[in-house]
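User: I've been trying to design a sequence by hand for this structure and keep getting stuck. Would you show me what you'd pick, starting by listing the structure so we're on the same page?

Assistant: Good idea, let's start from the same input. This is the structure you sent:
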């Protein structure tokens, strides 16, 4: 096996592990929000509590990185480079912790909407034939998430979406498909509500993104930042904040990363993955 193939396999395993942790974190966060709501904690306070917990986790990683040291008996130049790299990573983690403390507004409300949706009584299903011993148990169904419904929801936010005639791609279905593939099964039932909360929460930031990098802007005139202003981009940005590693892993399987890199630079997410 070549070194490049080994590196690619190792990176794929890292992405799979990170994806697993992110899915677990989403489920745990939902449980925490439900517990806080049951205790009478309002949405804003619940957001603050969870954001501080997440910032504390990042701060713990900062401490662990800061206390690491170069391998024993390393040469002085190697140690200097090691410590310089540690300082850079630690500084970046500190910025993430600072940002995380003030991030996450609207997640408790989104969680409440998701729970309410899931608790709605299901429509009565038609009677099925009586099962026999040879019948296999039916697999658990995943709530459908139709791309057309998500796109229609995204079109309702004019401060974040360019006029149809000015968009770079009349049809951005490939980008939407890649972004939706990073939506976990447990998130699908209430994803449109979640997206609406995300866009409302980041309204000022989205307005500035469209103004500074959207169609007609100076950066866009050079042929870059082509995704800014597309309705599909709202889903990409939401996933960039919620599941950045999974989004990039799925994107790299199908699409040119330059589009995602440009959007990541313009948006400035909590975790930057472009290399």
């Amino acid at each position: 096996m070549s070194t490049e193939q080994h590196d690619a396999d190792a990176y794929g395993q890292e992405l799979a592990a990170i994806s697993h942790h992110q899915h677990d974190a989403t489920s745990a966060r939902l449980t925490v929000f439900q517990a806080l709501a049951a205790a009478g904690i309002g949405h804003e306070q619940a957001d603050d509590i969870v954001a501080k917990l997440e910032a504390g986790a990042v701060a713990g990683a900062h401490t662990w990185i800061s206390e690491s040291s170069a391998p024993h008996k390393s040469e002085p130049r190697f140690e200097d480079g090691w410590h310089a790299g540690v300082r850079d990573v630690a500084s970046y983690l500190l910025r993430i912790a600072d940002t995380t403390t003030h991030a996450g507004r609207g997640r408790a409300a989104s969680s409440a909407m998701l729970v309410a949706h899931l608790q709605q009584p299901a429509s009565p299903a038609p009677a099925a034939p009586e099962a026999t011993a040879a019948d296999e148990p039916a697999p658990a169904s995943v709530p459908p998430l139709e791309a057309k419904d998500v796109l229609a929801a995204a079109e309702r936010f004019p401060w974040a979406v360019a006029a149809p005639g000015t968009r770079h791609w009349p049809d951005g279905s490939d980008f939407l498909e890649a972004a939706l593939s990073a939506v976990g099964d447990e998130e699908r039932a209430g994803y449109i509500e979640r997206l609406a909360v995300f866009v409302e929460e980041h309204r000022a930031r989205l307005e500035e993104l469209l103004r500074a990098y959207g169609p007609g802007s100076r950066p866009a005139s050079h042929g870059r930042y082509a995704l800014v202003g597309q309705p599909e981009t709202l889903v990409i940005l939401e996933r960039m904040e919620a599941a950045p590693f999974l989004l990039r892993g799925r994107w790299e399987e199908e699409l040119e990363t330059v589009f995602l890199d440009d959007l990541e630079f313009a948006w400035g997410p909590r975790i930057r993955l472009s290399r």
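That's my pick for every position. To get oriented when you compare it with your attempt: The chain has two domains: 21-120, 144-275. Residues 264 and 272 are 7 Å apart (CA to CA).
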